[in-house]
Inverse folding.
C-alpha cells in the first residue's frame, strides 16, 4: 500500500466521498437479503441530505483517506455528534485496500473526536447482510444492542409505498 494521507473535509465538501459512498451502497445492495431494491434507488443526494440533517444542531466530522502514490481517495468515515450521542454514520474502505489499517485509523480518529466532545454513547448501524462488519466494530468496543426490523415497503411509520402514494 502506498503512502496514506488522512484529511478532514468540511460539510461543504461532502461530495468528495460520493464515488466511495456509491461503492458502499452497491455493496449493501449486493449483500442485503431483503432491501436490495431500496439500495438500488438510494441516491447520494438523499444520503447527503440525511447526513447534513443528522448533523444539524450538532457537529460533523468527515475524514478521507487518500493513497498518495495512486493519487486517489480510498476510504472515508463520517461521524456526527448531537447532544451526548456520537454516531459513526458511514465508514467505507475500498475493497482493494482493506486489511491495511486504513479503517482502523479512520475509527481511532473518529472515536477520539467523539470522545473529545463528551459522547456518552456512540452508535453505528450495520446493514442486515453485512454482519461481517460486526467483528471490525467489536475491536473498538461496539456490541449488538438491538435489532430493528423493518417491514418491506414501509416508510418506518407503518405505511406502505402504496398507502403513501394514494390520493
Amino acid at each position: 500500500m502506498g503512502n496514506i494521507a488522512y484529511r478532514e473535509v468540511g460539510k461543504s465538501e461532502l461530495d468528495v466521498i460520493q464515488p466511495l459512498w456509491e461503492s458502499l451502497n452497491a455493496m449493501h445492495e449486493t449483500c442485503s437479503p431483503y432491501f436490495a431494491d431500496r439500495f438500488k434507488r438510494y441516491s447520494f443526494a438523499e444520503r447527503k441530505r440525511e447526513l447534513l440533517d443528522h448533523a444539524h444542531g450538532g457537529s460533523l466530522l468527515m475524514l478521507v483517506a487518500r493513497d498518495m502514490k495512486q493519487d486517489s481517495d480510498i476510504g472515508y468515515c463520517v461521524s456526527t455528534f448531537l447532544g451526548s450521542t456520537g454516531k459513526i454514520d458511514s465508514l467505507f474502505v475500498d475493497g482493494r485496500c482493506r486489511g491495511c489499517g486504513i479503517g482502523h485509523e479512520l475509527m481511532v480518529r473518529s472515536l477520539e473526536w467523539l470522545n473529545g466532545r463528551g459522547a456518552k454513547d456512540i452508535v453505528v448501524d450495520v446493514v442486515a447482510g453485512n454482519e461481517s462488519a460486526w467483528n471490525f466494530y467489536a475491536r473498538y468496543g461496539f456490541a449488538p444492542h438491538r435489532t430493528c426490523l423493518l417491514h418491506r415497503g414501509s416508510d418506518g411509520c407503518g405505511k406502505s409505498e402504496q398507502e403513501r402514494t394514494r390520493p
Notes: The mean pLDDT is 88. The CA atoms of residues 15 and 117 lie 25 Å apart. DSSP finds six helices and five strands in the chain.
